[in-house]
Design brief:
about 750 residues, Dimethylsulfoxide Reductase, domain 2, 4 domains, six-stranded mixed sheet, six-stranded mixed beta barrel, about 15% strand, binds ligand PGD, Molybdopterin-dependent oxidoreductase
């Protein structure tokens, strides 16, 4: 099982040579094609390694990270060295000085999940500064609990695809429903129902309106609106305006189930700021003719309409507004809680929305308790490392960044997920020591002092399951461990032994014992609940999988609609908060008490567009999961002259004298990268698209702002939070210019290991 699907493999003993999707997956993900050859790929980390400069000079800030050679060594030498450094930092600076917990997806598998392992280990050694939130949903994670209550319901109990296919007449999809993202689900996924559900909806006579600057954000027949990127909230406001001014809004729903509509309406109709958010007002921002907006609003008011907002819309500056305004628009239509109507978030952003949840807890590795209370919003990592002691705002609190001396990272790649990589490189120069566990020499591993060779999920026994998928799957090792790599659990066990806390960390269990230990108490619990009786562990392992039950045919917030007194939302009012006293009380100038239109900085109408006239959409890749297996066959087949493809409308290509297949330089005042041009008239003119995930490959590793020769888009993006409320990731949008690359073509070395060196003389 992988995050992108269930499959079986053929091996030659050392590596995977072929993959076959599971039979029950009617629409398997092409991403499994990246797996063959991955176990023994030259980019694997063969042995423990320490950065040469660290061995020579010891811990401390340095500009050498990302620009140094490595000394490989045996585990016997490596473990005491790393344990000693952990001990030094704790003794001298306290546990708060360790930043860990590691944001990142790692691999599927409940036990060997790298993040769970590193959490458990760092908790056992006394705690660490952790991060909260994630890069996917930074804004949603904070704003939606205030205004909708338990935001997890949005995903785990979202309206089922079957219900949408059967009942929705009009699917208004802000951000479309990109099938490529539904290949993936955190923790694994056994089937991919989205394409079929959209097909069934259409076959029933349902209509889909895809609102996106990229045509392929919705496959198959759909009406398409392509607003100026970043203007969706203005379009939603205009739709709301038409509903309000025509009396098409559902006042009974608003009175019974929401609070604060009146205050929002004052803003909508311009009573508070003198600016009516009419379709004409919006047209100047979105480029969508007012008549089209009016017509769509009319149809929405007359149909069973489902409004969906993709995660990508909140991964921009002021990203809080898109889901909040989507919810508000759906509340005005009055369909929330009605089968096929209402609001959805993340259809097409991941496979999970639309698939029913397992109605009981899943086997889970206990992670212990973190005795350090300090945390940061996850996308503030560079801010934290660069500004110890500096104040910042977050969700109503005025906080202070801790002083981090050691970064301990496992299962994530900040050179994939973070913005403004030049700034990240400077930030990673600040701590005394950086530790990275990964199977591969990723750019993050190449910036570490201690590099820990992890196994991949193909080299270890595990079991996998996830909240919204019926299958609990045995994942027996397919091949032997590569070279001198170890499971992260084993590495942490060795470190714990060296630090004298082995028993606390392992509880006397090896990995095989833990699998049984996760499974058997879970089996007893589920059996007692009386819904299903899972087989014994031995039977489960022999059979390879167990089908749990899932709750199907869900309608989001149907219980709340039925009886808001009995099933209130977990908001202060118990209702949907179109006006939030809590958020208003924070007094932020970048996130008011009700949804608002805020003009972004990175957009085509702004001042910056004079210098950088193309709006780049930095979205999720179609050919790999994030940065994982970028060297795999599917990812490599998409590259143009070895570079990540950037798509552009033919008008823009012609204006710059560019042709399909050219290598181009994509740049702004933060950085530059090379990419391979693909001309595609499915993009709105002046919009270009470059997916995340090409491994960062600086032309001059000494220069933190060096051009990336491979096409990592995050050298261009701004490192700035969504707002003072959520401080979420804003990497989705950035302004750039593009020109032909006329110099000699630098080689791509991203997937090669670093230089290795002899041990320095002391
Ligand atoms: P991955 O490439 O999945 O990216 O960012 P994330 O860091 O999750 O990194 C996972 C790493 O875990 C890989 O290096 C992999 O090799 C390693 N790994 C796999 N298995 C194991 C294991 O067993 N042990 C260890 N130690 N390591 C393992 C994803 C993040 O990027 C996300 S979720 C989103 S939604 C964001 N999206 C955007 C965006 O839209 N636009 C921009 N510009 N930037 C983004 N960044 C974010």
């Amino acid at each position: 099982m992988a995050h992108y699907g269930r499959f079986s493999v053929d091996t030659d003993g050392a590596d995977v040579v072929a993959v076959r999707p599971a039979a029950e997956d009617g629409d398997p993900s092409p991403l499994i094609g990246n797996v063959p050859g991955s176990v023994t790929h030259p980019s694997r980390i063969r042995r423990p390694a320490v950065r040469r400069g660290w061995l020579e000079h010891g811990p401390g800030p340095t500009a050498l990270r990302g620009n140094d050679s490595y000394v490989e060594m045996d585990w016997d030498e490596f473990v005491p060295l790393l344990a000693g450094e952990l001990r030094r930092v704790i003794d001298r600076h306290g546990n708060e000085a360790i930043y860990g917990g590691s944001y990142g997806w790692g691999s599927a598998g409940r036990f060997h999940h790298a993040q769970s392992q590193v959490h458990r280990f760092l908790n056992t050694i006394g705690g660490y500064t952790r991060s909260v939130g994630n890069y996917s949903l930074g804004a949603t994670n904070v704003v939606m609990p205030h205004v909708m209550g338990s935001h997890w319901k949005l995903f785990s109990r979202s309206t089922s695809w079957d219900v949408i296919a059967e009942h929705t007449d009009l699917l208004v999809a802000f951000g479309g429903v990109p099938i490529k993202n539904t290949f993936v689900n955190h923790g694994g996924t056994s089937h991919h129902p989205t394409r079929d559900a959209l097909h069934r909806l259409r076959a029933r006579g349902g209509r889909i309106v895809s609102i996106s600057p990229l045509a392929d954000d919705l496959e198959g027949t759909a009406e398409r609106l392509a607003p100026v990127p970043g203007s969706d909230v203005a379009l939603m406001m205009a739709l709301a305006h038409v509903l309000a001014t025509n009396g098409w809004h559902d006042t009974r729903f608003l009175e019974r189930y929401t609070v604060g509509y009146d205050r929002f309406e004052d803003y909508l109709l311009g009573r508070t700021d003198g600016m009516s958010k009419s379709p004409e007002w919006a047209e100047a921002l979105t480029g969508i003719p007012a008549s089209v907006t009016r017509d769509l609003a009319r149809r929405m008011a007359r149909s069973t309409t489902m409004i969906t907002v993709t995660f990508s819309l909140q991964r921009t500056r002021h990203g809080e507004q898109a889901p909040w305004m989507g919810m508000t628009l759906a509340a005005m239509l009055g369909g929330i809680g009605v089968p096929g109507a209402g609001f959805g978030h993340g259809y097409g952003s991941m496979n999970e929305p639309g698939i029913g949840p397992v109605p009981y807890p899943l086997p889970t590795l206990p992670q212990g308790t973190n005795r350090v209370p300090t945390s940061i919003p996850v996308a503030a990592v560079s801010d934290m490392l660069l500004n110890p002691g500096a104040p910042y705002d977050y969700d109503g609190e005025r906080r202070t960044f801790p002083d981090i001396r050691l970064v301990h990272w496992a299962g994530g790649n900040p050179f994939h997920h973070h913005q403004d990589l030049g700034r990240l490189r400077e930030a990673l120069g600040r701590p005394d020591t950086v530790v990275v566990h990964d199977p591969f020499w990723t750019p993050m591993a190449k910036h570490a002092d201690f590099v820990v060779p992890s196994t991949t999920s193909l080299e270890r026994d595990d079991l996998s399951c996830t909240r919204n998928d019926p299958w609990l799957v045995a994942m027996p090792a397919a091949v032997a461990r590569f070279a001198d790599s170890k499971d992260d659990y084993e590495t942490f066990t060795l470190l714990a032994r060296e630090l004298g806390i082995e028993q606390e960390f392992t509880e006397g269990r090896n990995a095989a014992d833990w699998l049984r230990h996760l499974y058997e108490p879970w089996r007893a619990f589920v059996s007692a609940a009386g819904r299903v009786t899972p087989p014994t562990f031995a039977e489960f392992w022999r059979d390879g999988a167990f089908r749990m039950d899932t709750e199907d045919d869900l309608t989001l917030l149907a219980d709340f609609r039925d009886d808001p007194a009995r099933a209130p939302l977990r908001t202060p009012s118990g209702r949907l908060e179109i006006f939030s006293e809590t958020i208003d009380g924070f007094g932020y100038d970048d996130c008011a008490g009700h949804p608002r239109w805020y003009e972004p900085q990175e957009w085509l109408h702004g001042e910056r567009a004079g210098r950088f006239p193309l709006h780049l959409v930095a979205n999720q890749p179609r050919t790999r999961l994030h940065s994982q297996l970028d060297h795999g066959a599917v990812s490599q087949a998409s590259k143009v002259q070895g570079r990540e493809p950037v798509r552009m409308h033919s008008d823009d290509a012609r204006a710059r004298g560019l042709a399909d297949g050219d290598v181009v330089r994509v740049f702004n005042d933060r950085g530059a990268c090379l990419a391979g041009l693909r001309v595609d008239d499915g993009l709105r003119p002046r919009v270009v698209q470059l997916a995340t995930g090409a491994w960062y490959d600086p032309l001059d590793p000494v220069d933190p702002r060096s051009m990336c020769v491979h096409g990592n888009v995050n050298v261009l993006t701004e490192d700035r939070g969504t707002s003072s409320l959520a401080q979420g990731c804003t990497g989705q949008h950035v302004l750039v210019e593009i020109e032909k690359w006329t110099g000699a073509l630098p080689p791509v070395r991203a997937h090669q290991p670093p230089e290795f060196a002899e041990r320095p003389q002391k």
